[in-house]
Design goal:
- One of its GO terms (cellular component) is plasma membrane.
- Belongs to the auxin efflux carrier (TC 2.A.69) family.
- It comes from Paenibacillus elgii.
- The protein is an all-alpha fold.
- The longest helix is centred in the N-terminal third of the chain and has 29 residues.
- It is globular and about 45 Å long.
- It contains 15 helices and no strands.
- The protein has a single domain, classed as Up-down Bundle (Na+/H+ antiporter like fold), CATH 1.20.1530.20.
């Protein structure tokens, strides 16, 4: 019950308030969602990724094992989504929209505080979650954008040029290089990085709120529920099976399974909005999975205690 209350008070309610502010601002001023989307892609998200990687403590052993887990988990969920997509008979834009709502999950502003709550500020489990966050920042900005444009039969050369303009692709190696070489960042430069990265969560949630405020709210209930079940219930179950397959035990296994249990990423909404690809479904999937995660994440927290 304590976890349920904490997740509700410290994750879901604050997120909902920010989303509600976005809805109100759209209704009052008709904010331009494309501008908000570009700010997230080109400024706020890269700054957050750089700061967290530069400040993290990552060992090569943990990095390698976590990356292997992530690759196996991503491949398993991708194959599962291909089966679901074919069984449901999705067409064109709905294919990447449904896939993105399940394989891209909120590994930063939801999962990192959750990790530190469950593992009481453990630096080891935090480093695991930061690696997951790194990959979940990279993939939406590469494969996610490619898949959406491929489904819309857009010019692939232009798509690849767009992907190559995204800062996060370059920010990740730069952060690792600067960290590995122990290169200090001057205070006047690091201060703006802190300002911008701190603004990511607020801006991303306001963007979601603006999108929700502009929607006609024609629910596709079956697809939204299916997305939520696959993300919140099937995701951690698959994560647990991969942990068993890899022979990972103890707190690392618990942290990896927990990382798979969080709701749909805001990145899926940002991609949907930026490329006009099922933005209503994507927004509803993010919002509803965040609400329902109160119950599912609490259950996962209880169950991972039995992983030894």
């Amino acid at each position: 019950m304590a976890y349920f209350t904490h997740i509700l008070l410290n994750n879901v309610i604050p997120l909902t308030i920010m989303i509600a502010i976005g809805v109100i601002l759209y209704r009052a001023f008709k904010l331009d969602i494309k501008t908000l989307s570009k700010l997230n892609f080109y400024l706020f998200s890269p700054a957050l990724v750089f700061k967290m990687l530069y400040e993290s403590s990552l060992s090569l052993a943990v990095l390698g094992q976590t990356l292997l887990f992530f690759v196996l988990f991503f491949a398993a969920m991708f194959l599962l989504m291909e089966v679901v997509i074919r069984l449901r008979g999705y067409k064109e834009g709905m294919i990447p929209a449904m896939r993105n709502s399940v394989i891209f999950y909120n590994s930063a502003n939801y999962a990192i505080p959750l990790n530190q709550l469950v593992f009481v500020g453990d630096a080891f489990t935090l480093s695991i979650q930061i690696i997951i966050m790194m990959m979940q920042s990279l993939l939406p900005n590469t494969y996610g954008i490619y898949a959406v444009n491929a489904s819309k039969r857009n010019d692939m050369k232009q798509t690849f040029r767009t992907i190559l303009t995204l800062p996060v692709i370059y920010i990740i190696p730069i952060a690792f290089l600067m960290k590995g070489l122990h290169l200090p960042i001057p205070g006047p430069v690091y201060a703006p990085i802190n300002y911008v990265s701190d603004a990511f969560i607020a801006t991303a949630l306001l963007t979601l709120g603006v999108q929700l405020g502009s929607m006609k709210w024609t629910f596709n209930l079956a697809d939204v529920v299916l997305s939520n079940v696959l993300r919140l219930c099937v995701g951690p179950a698959v994560g647990f099976l991969i942990v068993l397959l890899m022979g990972i035990e103890g707190v690392m296994a618990q942290a990896l399974v927990l990382s798979c249990a969080v709701p749909t990423s805001l990145s899926s909404v940002l991609i949907a909005v930026e490329y006009d690809n099922e933005p209503e479904f994507s927004s509803q999937a993010v919002f509803s999975s965040t609400i329902f995660s109160i119950f599912t994440v609490t259950l996962v927290i209880y169950l991972i205690k039995f992983i030894n």
